Amino acid sequence: MDGIVAAWLRLEARRRGRSLLVLALLVAFGTATVLTAVAGARRGGGAVDRLLAVTAPATAVVLPNQAGFDWAALRALPQVEAVTTFPGYISTVVAEDPGDDTPSPFVAADTEAMTTVERPVVLAGRLPDPASAHEAVVTPAYAARGFGVGRRVTVLLPTPDDAAAGIGGGRTGPPRGPRVPVTIVGVVRSAWYADEPDGRGHFIPSPGLVAAYPDEILGPDRQAPLNGLVRVAEGGLPALRAWLAGRGDVEVADRADELAHVRQVIGFETGCLLVFAVAAFLTAVVLVGQAVFRYATASAADLRPLTLVGMTRRQAATATAAAVLPSAVLGGGVGVLGAVLASAWLPYGTAALYEPSPGVDADLPVLLLGWPAAVVLVAAGAAVTALLPRARPAPRRSAVTRLALPVPVTTGLRFALEPGNGVALSGAVTGVLGVVAAAVFAAGVADAAARPERFGQHYALMAVFGFDGRVSTPARPALESIAALPGVAGVLDLRIASGRSGQVSVVAHTYDPVEAPVPLVLTEGAEPASGHDVVLALTTARELGVGVGDRIPLTGEAGTREMRVSGLGFAVESTTTGYDTGAWITPAAYDAIFTGFKEHGGLVVLDPGGDPSAVARRITGGPGGRLLVFPPFTPPQRAEIRNVAVLPVALGVFLTALALGATAHALSTAVRRRGRDLAVLRALGLTPGQTRGVVVVQAVVTAVIGLVTGVPLGLALGRVLWRAAAGIMPLQYVPPSAPLVWLGPAALLAVVVLALSPGRRAARIGLGAALRAE
């Protein structure tokens, strides 16, 4: 009998070689897609930890925002392992990058940068010579814009006088000082030197630039406040906070808290990728399963005569499985290779910005398990199909037959609602659910991308009056003149100081409208109305574990006051703090808790449809001509939310393929399984056109059930996903809605097209052969 099986396999290779090759390609595509998604999720989920393990990361960012801070005393603390400092308000501009008027956010003021703290991984080239003023490194996004290793650029520095004016918050115009030739010697990455989503990247000069041009960067009297990256021993951060508590307006940003948001975003991306892997797996099961089912069914029919010479059903199933085994092995191997090659594009989204070893990566545990799993599933599917009983199930009386409907409609309904069509119905529901959920999620993304107020930015312009307690322009008269300009809806007088509540740093902002009231963007509660009210940004409230109505102590250099949480919402995005951290308090509360300010500015709210550029020109062209006026800083979360939108959409595409594949298989199978029923109806007078109508009705009923069930489920799922994303970012949640009027016609058109081929086969059934077969 083994000889018969071997001869059968040789015969199958010649007769159905093309079908087996198509099967191998389907297996390869399915295997590659599923393994790529699973391996990408594992790689992205561990990106931050792997980067931190090799880069000596900073524990905290210390922001004294005051000149003359005693960094030597901080370095001498026993818990402090490394410190590097950088000026808070002065940095550099690259002349060859005219599209970027934002200076580099980091210019190291000492040689510990990139060595003892935040030592980046080098993706290309090398680290700069810390003693040279003519070398720099860049992040990957900056290099991708044509500024790679070896590129020579010109760094523009301000004059000492302009540097001093800039430190005080004055508007200085383009740099007019030295032009320094600099060569880019490396492309680097660490948690600190990381690109923002959709950002232009960063240019990071050597510490030697500050040593060579101190007056132009730090000011002629070294008045530029220095901030610092600090790495402390494990468990040493509370002691550092306690040491800093009595040294004025010093903000401490815990890097672990900042990276917690990154981990949340990556976790969401990873979860979406795993769900995508499940959807891809189900789609592969349906598509590959159809090919296996068709081959195994045909093979079983051809093997039936061999049972007359002693072949058992188990041996027939073994022969069928053995015939598809080479295709499964070949397809699985090609799929594994494809997954390895596709790993060069993963991880995606935020995780890609923290991947320490970008490029091709072979996740051996996933690959070594995925390949044999694909082979086993294909071979087992073929064997089980071959073992299925061939007897047609006895017809059962259906309630559909009692309906006074035309025969094609009644028959199509019976085919659609019989138990054997359950996979198609489930696939249709799942496909519609996925499409609707993806559309709703995409609508939420589009809304957030188009509306900065979802991230708390109800204001369109920011003005600066002074830094570090020094005033460059009297604030109140300037704000009153701005409020009187046409197109301005409201203005907030904004003073900022760093306080704390327990061990949590809280950056306080004054809620001080000038003339017209200016509402804050809140998720719940109300604006502060008294000197004991506080509105907390969402992340700060989460760190404190409080909600509306709770009470917290708020401490500044002038004292401590117990505050009642009147609302939760968003604060102000800046170069050092995020919009999701901080607090709003009244001027009376501010004066009781703080003295001076870290920053003093104004937030300008425009009328709907107002032109920020035109209003900015009016401000700088009038009494506020010396003011530094600029648009709000863009939160990186606005780009992050666009990144996480990719996978739900891709998931919807795969679930659509799942629904179409399952429906096509059900229609084809129904024609094959119900061939005798259709032949009997044809013998009783059913026309070929009516026979095609039976298949169309089955397809339409399947689609209608999918729409009726899948649309509400998809709406609910899409909103749940969007609420989860809104909580992770965070942003103001507004229930998204998507126009879905196209979905019904599109689904019906798709299933009608799918019904054309099986409908033609049904209309061409040979009556005599079909009846004799039974």
Give an account of the 3D structure.
By secondary structure, the protein is α+β, with helices and mostly antiparallel strands. It is built from 24 helices and 22 strands. The protein has four domains: 191 residues, no CATH class; 185 residues, no CATH class; 198 residues, no CATH class; 177 residues, Barwin-like endoglucanases, CATH 2.40.40.20. Helices cover 48% and strands 16% of the residues. Strand 13 and strand 14 form a beta hairpin. Helix 20 runs parallel beside helix 23. The protein is elongated.
Write a concise keyword list for the protein shown above.
six-stranded mixed beta sheet, 22 strands, transmembrane transporter activity, single chain, 774 residues, 4 domains, ABC3_permease_C, 48% helix, twelve-stranded mixed beta sheet, transmembrane helix, alpha+beta, transmembrane
What secondary-structure arrangement, pairings included, does this model have?
Blueprint: H1 2-15, H2 17-45, H3 47-52, E1 60-63, H4 71-75, E2 80-87, E3 93-94, E4 121-125, E5 135-138, H5 140-143, E6 152-156, H6 160-167, E7 179-189, E8 203-205, H7 208-212, H8 214-218, E9 226-232, H9 237-245, E10 251-254, H10 255-303, H11 313-342, H12 364-387, H13 407-417, H14 422-450, E11 461-467, E12 470-471, H15 475-483, E13 488-501, E14 504-510, E15 513-514, E16 522-525, E17 533-537, H16 538-544, E18 551-556, E19 559-569, E20 583-585, H17 587-593, E21 599-606, H18 612-621, E22 628-630, H19 636-644, H20 646-673, H21 675-683, H22 688-728, H23 743-763, H24 767-772
Parallel strand pairs: 5-7, 14-20, 17-19
Antiparallel strand pairs: 1-9, 1-10, 2-9, 3-6, 4-7, 5-8, 6-7, 11-12, 11-21, 11-22, 13-14, 13-15, 13-21, 16-19, 17-20, 18-19
Helix pairs in contact: 1-11, 2-10, 2-11, 2-12, 10-11, 10-12, 10-20, 11-12, 13-22, 14-19, 14-20, 14-22, 20-22, 20-23, 22-23
